[in-house]
Amino acid sequence: MPRPISVLLNGDFVSRLRTKTTLIRAILKFYVFCFEDL
């Protein structure tokens, strides 16, 4: 039984949000590392 479009869209939104948060965290860690080096 196929899932509703709203559920698929919601899942896609959640996965995109997760990737964005992980990217932001990685960038913040990188900046902190660079500033600690200075």
Give the CA-CA distance, first to last residue. Answer: 57 Å
Q: Assign an overall shape.
A: rod-shaped
Q: Count of DSSP E strands?
A: 0
Q: Portion of residues in helices?
A: over 70%
- Overall pLDDT confidence: 83
Rg, Cα atoms, Å:
17 Å
Q: Secondary-structure element order, as H and E?
A: H
How many strands, which pairing sense, and closed or not: the largest β-sheet? none
Low-confidence stretches: none
Protein structure class: mainly alpha
Estimate what percentage of residues fall within beta strands. Answer: under 5%
How many domains, in number, for the residues?
1
| Distinct helical segment count | 1
Write structural notes for this entry.
The protein is mainly alpha-helical and 38 residues long. The protein has one domain (1-38). Helix content is 87%, strand content 0%. It contains one helix and no strands. The chain has one helix at residues 5-37. The longest helix is centred in the middle third of the chain and has 33 residues, at 5-37. It is rod-shaped. It starts with a helix and ends with a helix. The model has no long low-confidence stretch (mean pLDDT 83).
